[in-house]
Design goal:
Elements: H1 2-23, H2 28-55, H3 59-79, H4 83-100, H5 110-122
Length: about 130
């Protein structure tokens, strides 16, 4: 079950990468942030039955931490401030949580951390021109 969800997350991240590279949307970071949130929520939803059976009430924070972390860049984008910082912080939280839970459900969240880092590194906002 976990392996299937992990493969699904990897496929989702690769699809987002292909779409961003091929279609070149005007706001690629926005696409990456929303896609990271959607993939994280879908992974958490798919792992919920397994995690509840295994961990009981602890499933709420085991699955909730990555979802909340993936929400941070979207909220920062809505506010319009510190978006790159929010991307990096979210990627670090999701990666750390994924590695902490790596022998169980954590590996399924690692592709999202890679997507957020790729969004920061690969899509740069155009700098304003200094010449007039």
């Amino acid at each position: 079950m976990i392996d299937l969800v992990t493969v699904g997350a990897i496929v989702g991240v690769l699809l987002v990468g292909v779409v961003v590279l091929v279609r070149k949307p005007a706001d690629a970071r926005r696409v990456v942030r929303w896609s990271a949130l959607v993939i994280t929520v879908l992974v958490a939803a798919a792992l919920t039955p397994y995690t509840v059976d295994d961990s009981g009430a602890a499933a709420s924070y085991l699955l909730g931490v990555p979802v909340v972390a993936a929400t941070l860049p979207v909220l920062a984008q809505r506010i319009g401030r510190l978006t790159v910082v929010a991307d990096v912080v979210a990627a670090l939280i999701i990666a750390a949580w994924g590695l902490l839970l790596g022998l169980g459900i954590g590996g399924a969240f690692l592709p999202v951390a890679v997507l957020l880092v790729a969004g920061v590194v690969g899509t740069r906002a155009p700098r304003p021109s200094t010449t007039t």
